[in-house]
Amino acid sequence: MANKIPRVAVREQDPKVRAHNFEEVSYGYDKQEAMLEASRCLHCKNPRCVGGCPVSIQIPEFIAHVAEGDIAAAAGVIAKDSLLPAVCGRVCPQETQCEGQCILGVKGEPVAIGKLERFVADYMHAHPEQSQAVEKAPANGHKVAVIGSGPAGLACAADLAKWGYEVTIFEALHKAGGVLVYGIPEFRLPKDKVLAKEIEAVTALGVKIETDVIIGRTVTIDSLMEKEGFEAVFVGTGAGLPRFMGIPGENLNGVFSANEFLTRNNLMKAYLDDYATPIHAGRKAVVVGGGNVAMDAARTALRLGADTTIVYRRTEVELPARKEEVHHAKEEGIEFRMLTNPVEVLGDENGNVRAIKCIKMELGEPDESGRRSPVPVEGSEFEVECDTVIMALGTSPNPLIAKTTPGLERTRKGGLVASEGGATTRDGIFAGGDAVTGAATVILAMGAGRKAAAEIHKKLSEN
Amino acid sequence: MYKILEKRMLAPQIYLMEIEAPRLAAAALPGQFLIIRDDEKGERIPLTVSDCDPAKGTVTVVIQLIGRSSHKMVEQYQVGDSFEDVVGPLGNPSEFVNASPEELKDRRYVFIAGGLGTAPVYPQARWLHDHGVPVDVIIGARTKDLLIYTDKLASACDNLYLCTDDGSEGFKGVGTACLEDLCAKGKTYTNCVAIGPMIMMKFATLTCMKLNIPIQVSMNTLMVDGTGMCGACRVSVGGKTYFSCVDGPEFDGALVDWDEAMRRSRQYKPEEAAAMESYGK
After folding, report:
1. Which residues, including other chains, have CB under 8 Å from residue B12's CB and lie 6 or more apart?
2. Which segments within A130-280 are labelled E, that is strand?
3. Is the full-model pTM beyond 0.90?
4. pLDDT in tens, A313-330
5. Nearest CA of chain A to the CA of B175: how many Å?
6. With an 8 Å Cβ cutoff, are A211 and B267 in contact?
7. What number is the ipTM of this complex?
8. Cβ of residue B143 closer than 8 Å to a chain A Cβ
9. Residue A364, C-beta contacts closer than 8 angstroms, at least 6 positions apart
C-alpha cells in the first residue's frame, strides 16, 4: 500500500550551521526522493487537495507524473494554474491549504505537496532543455500597464503576454519581485537561483519591466492611459505600509519596522560585506508579532548575530506563521515568549533601546475572528533586556495610487474596492492581491492577478 | 541607467550634478525629493531636487561629501557616466504649489537656507517668484567660500541676503539672526520656509515662533525606500508619528520634535563611521 510509506523527510542545513548563514534552509528533494514521496498519493476520486489550493492546481495529476519520473509533464500540469511554482512550493502555507486537506493527513502525514511542487520547479530550472515551449498568441496591438512586480503583477502580466498583449510592468523599487525580493529572506527564497529565474520566465514572454517608476508620483495612471496609450491598468501594489503599536518609546533608536529591517537585509543586501547598506541587529533583539514576517525578521536578526526573542500576545496555537517557519526558528535557537505583549520601549540616556516592557496576557473570550482574544493580566509587567526591537505587526496598502487617481475608491481598511474579477470603481482599471485584500499570501495574490488578466482580456477583446 | 550630464564643484565638499531622468524631470514639483543608488551595491540616498528641466529631461541635485556613499558618488562618477537608479519625485510638493491664487495673494515669504539646503530652496523661490508672490531669501554659511547658488537665487527672489558666521560676506552671523535683524528693521513676513541641517531648522523654528511667523521645514530624515514602506523616516509632529517620505517632507516646524529627529538621524552613526573607514577616508 502506497500510504504505508512514511513521508519522505527533506534534507535541511544543520540548524547550528544555518543560524550563521543566509543559505537556503531546505535542500529540497532529489528525483529519487520526489518519486518515492509522489508514490504516496492515493489519487482520491475527489481530490480535496485541489479544493484546498487557491489556484486549483491539478495536484494528483502532477504528482502522478512525478511518480513516473516525467518531471517535464508534471511541470506542464502545474504551469496551467501557477506561474511561480518554485516560489509557492517554498512559501505557501501548505498545512492550511492543499496538505491540510490531504486524506493521508487524517491518520498520518499528508503528501508533501509543497516539497514536490518545489522539486518540479527546481528540476525544470536545472533542465531548461526539457521544458515545453510556452504557447503565445500573436501580438494583438493592445497595451496594458501592470503596476507592481510582486506575485499579483507578475501573474497578471504573464497571462496577458501569452494572449498577445503588449505589457509593461512599472516597479517603484530598483528591483523586480515586490515582497518576494524585499520581504522574504534569502534563506527561505534564494533570489538569484530561484526568484530571478521565475521573473526571467515572465520577461521571456515579452513583458517589459520598468523599475524606478512610482505610479502616482513619477507618472499617474491617468497619464499612462491618456498619454502613453495603455488601454487597461492592473494595480498590484501590495500592502507595503508597516504598522506600529503606538506605545511609548517606539521612536527610540533601535526600534525598526520588520519592513525596514528586512528591506535593508533582503533588497539592499546588508548581510553581504560588499554592499553599503547599514543594518542594526544589535546584541539582543526582540521581535514583536507572530506571523511569517516576524519569523523572517527574527531569523534574520539571529543570523546577523543577535540573540533573538519573539514575543506574541496569544499562544503558540494561534501563531499565524507557517508551522515549518516556527519549527525552523525554534531549531535555530530563537526564544518564543507567548502570551506576552509590549507596553513600552525603554531607552537609555542617549535614546537607544535598553529594554522592552511587556505585560503577561491570558486568553479570554473568542473575538469576531473566532480566536480567543488575549487580555492583559493586571500587574504582571516585566522587562526584557534588548538593544533592538523589531515590530512585525502587519502591513496595510499604500494609499498613493488611490489618492492620485480620481474615482478609485478605497475600503474602510484601505484596500482598493474591487470585484471578484478585479474591476475597480474606475473603468479600465483593475486591481488584485494585497492592494485589495490587505496582507495575505503569495498564492492568493497570484490568483487575483490571473483573474484580473482574464477580465482585462475579456474587456479588451470585446472592443 | 541615468546619465550624468554635468558635474561641478559649487564650494569645497559641495557638488552639483545634472542627471538624465526624463520621467522624473517631467513630474518634479518644488519641495519634492528623489533617491539615487549609484550602483548595484550602493545605498539608496535621498536628495532634494534642486532644479529640473522637463524639456531636456534632466534633474539637478546638490551633493555634500559626508559619508561613504556621497564620497563615492562624487569621486567615482564623471560626466558621461551613469547612476544605476534615480527614482522620484518623492514626497509631497510644497503646500503653496496647491494653494489657490486667492490664498497666495496676501503671502510674503522668507526662506532661510543653510549649507546644502540652499539648493532646494531654489525651485521653491523660483515658483513663488514666477507666481508673483513676494519672496526674500536668506542664505547662511560658515564662510564666504561655502555660499552656494547665490546667482541662481538672486534671479528667483525679490531680496537676497547673504550671511556668514565669520562676516566674510554679507551679514555677520547666522541666518536666523539675519531674519531677526530684518524684522527689527520693519520687514514683515507671513510665511517662512527653512531648509538645511536639522540643528539650523530647529533654531529657525525657535526664531520664527518668537517672531510669530509660521514656519515650514523640510525633514531630511533617514530613509530606505522613500515610498512609505520602511518607516525609517518616522518623525514626531504635534505628538503624532508621521513618515517624512509620504507625509512630508515638509512639516510645521513648530510641531516637530527636534530632539527626537536629531537623535534618530544618528541611528546608524557607528555603521556609517565604519563604512567611511573602509572607504579609506
Report:
1. B145, B146
2. 143-147, 166-170, 208-210, 232-235, 241-242, 255-257
3. yes
4. 999 999 999 999 999 999
5. 29
6. no
7. 0.93
8. no
9. A372, A373, A374, A375
